[in-house]
Design goal:
It contains 8 helices and 9 strands. By secondary structure, the chain is an alpha/beta fold. The strands form 2 sheets. Strands 5-6-7-3-8-9 form a 6-stranded mixed sheet, with helices on both faces. The chain has a 3-stranded antiparallel sheet with strand order 2-1-4, covered by helices on one side. The mean pLDDT is 93.
């Protein structure tokens, strides 16, 4: 499977505080998790890939064209219908007028909201709102989609449903999902990058990550603790 996003020797920081010090990451088609504790730089990495921030040094090789993005918290006009909300983003992303209706319909079909197209955004549940947010990230058919903590704040049923959607989307799209919830990684699998203290502590499959659990349990939580407890980078 070919590399879609290639990050080489990436350095970034805010004034005197370094966030990344020469990290290297390769991401491919499918679901790619960026895992780390709060403050590890997951959102910063998403914004660097999006182009909102510029690295001090290093390169980010990503597909040309627009990237889809869903921040952890996003605003929306509560009186907009779901279709109006996604159509607005189709316009922002430059989707030609004659294609907008069909692209909106395709995006709503992908996230399972076609039957709710005329419902008001303000009337949606948390899980349905997150699906609408993913629809706006997909409407311009980007090759790369960044989702920042998409399951945070959802109830157990909503999280199960959203995990199923992410698995489905990963079959045809390069998804980058930042998370501190390792149960999402365990449920979906895919590729995992563990960030800690400005470095990449692990990059590989969820199964390979589980093998780092020191007690042999295969627990991703225990593997994460082992990987982030040492100052030595594990790859």
């Amino acid at each position: 499977m070919g590399t879609i996003v290639e990050i080489k020797d990436l350095h970034f920081g805010y004034r005197r505080r370094a966030v990344f010090e020469g990290i290297n990451i390769d991401l491919s088609l499918g679901v790619n998790f960026i895992a780390g504790i709060n403050g590890a730089g997951k959102t910063t990495l998403c914004r660097l890939m999006l182009g909102d921030l510029r690295p001090r040094r290093g390169t980010i090789g990503a597909p040309g064209g627009s990237t889809g993005y869903l921040p952890q918290a996003f605003g929306y006009p509560p009186r907009f219908t779901v279709a109006e909300f996604v159509t607005h983003f189709a316009w922002l992303h430059g989707v030609p007028r004659k294609l907008r209706a069909s692209r909106v319909q395709e995006a709503l079909n992908l996230v399972g909201l076609a039957q709710r197209a005329e419902e008001r955004m303000g009337a949606l549940s948390g899980g349905m709102l997150r699906r609408a947010g993913i629809a706006q990230a997909l409407v311009h058919q980007p090759q790369l989609v960044l989702l920042d903590e998409p399951t945070v704040g959802l109830d157990p049923r909503q999280r199960v449903d959203l995990r199923s959607l992410l698995t489905q989307l990963g079959a045809t799209t390069t998804l980058v999902v930042s998370t501190h919830l390792l149960e999402d990684v365990a449920a979906i699998g895919g590729h995992v990058v563990v960030l800690h203290e400005g470095t990449v502590r692990f990059s590989g499959s969820a199964t390979e990550m589980a093998a780092h659990a020191e007690d042999g349990s295969g627990s991703l939580d225990k593997a994460f603790l082992a990987l982030t407890a040492t100052e030595e980078k594990v790859a």
